[in-house]
Structure formats: C-alpha cells, structure tokens
Design a protein that fits this description.
single chain, 46% helix, 7 helices, 4-stranded antiparallel sheet, 173 residues, alpha+beta
Length: 173
C-alpha cells in the first residue's frame, strides 16, 4: 500500500471481527511507533498491550464506557514518560514535547495497522486517573491514547475534509 493511499484510506474503526491479532503483528505496530520522530530523540513513549478481558473492561470504563474498546482483540495504550522529556526540556518537555512525540508514534501505529488490513481508532476521550489505575502506571507516566486494534467488521465511509484554501496561510495569519 502506498503512503498516500494509507493516509487517505485509514478510518476510525469501532467494530471488530472476533479474530485474534497475532503477537508478531502487534510487534510490527510497536516497531513502527518507535521509529517516530521525537524531540532530541528522547523517545518518551511506553506501550501497554492489553489483551486480557478484565483489563480491556477497565479501559472501556475509563473511556466513558466506549464498548468497542473492550470488544477489540487488542488495545494498545500509548503512554508518555513526562520525566524522560522534562530531564532535557523542562516544563515544555513535560507538558508538550512528550505529547507531540507520542502523537507521532500513534499516527505510525494507525497507518501501519491500516496497511496490514487492521482497523484502529485513536481514543483520547477517557478518564486519565482511571486509566492509570487500570494499568498500574508508575509516577510520571501519562496515558495519552488508547488504540483498539482488530480486523474491521465495518468500515465507515470517508468523511469530509476542509479544503486547503480554508486552512493554509502564507507568511502570517
């Protein structure tokens, strides 16, 4: 699959077939994520792979009862290590760079999954404290996104995008 095709063809999938995702495939997703750019090459990401039903149920509850989180065969929770980023970049590293860096890793996961015939959804709507409790995260580790992963049962149609002439400015706003 060509990159442009992956970018334009990827959709948020919220319905999955009851088919397992092989461990090697999940490893490919994490490998793609770790190749994302990061400020100062600090790589402040941590990935929690949830396959256990009980863990996925806790994550779904933390995600305001979005049931598809629980129903996916795998949920990858992408976390930011705030301490790792702040050691070099201070407060900006802690509050911004580690989030930007994990966002780049998340996009790599989404595009790689799509290229492998998998469906994903970037879930950012969740109670962070509940997610931390479910994952038993140590101090300084912040869950940034949950990514349910599986084989799509339904693929939604493409949604509209704002045209370039509405979003591009030259030199100044």
């Amino acid at each position: 699959m060509e990159l442009e095709e992956a970018i334009k063809g990827r959709r948020s999938i919220r319905a999955f077939k009851p088919q397992d995702v092989p461990e090697e495939t999940v490893e490919k997703l994490i490998d793609a994520a770790r190749h994302a750019p990061s400020a100062g090459n600090i790589q402040p990401w941590e990935f929690v792979i949830a396959r256990n039903l009980e863990t996925k149920q806790k994550l779904a509850r933390a995600a305001f009862n979005q049931e598809f989180v629980e129903e996916a065969p795998v949920v990858i929770v992408v976390c930011a290590d705030k301490n790792r980023s702040s050691m070099r970049y201070g407060i900006r590293g802690e509050t911004l760079y580690c989030i930007q860096d994990t966002a780049a890793a998340i996009q790599n996961i989404l595009l790689t999954a799509h290229s492998l015939g998998l469906g994903t959804c970037w879930v950012g709507a969740f109670n962070e404290d509940e997610a931390k409790k479910a994952l038993k995260t140590p101090v300084g580790i912040r869950p940034v996104a949950m990514i349910p992963v599986g084989y799509p049962d339904k693929t939604p149609s493409q949604r509209g995008r704002r045209p370039l002439n509405q979003i591009v400015r030259h030199e100044t706003f």
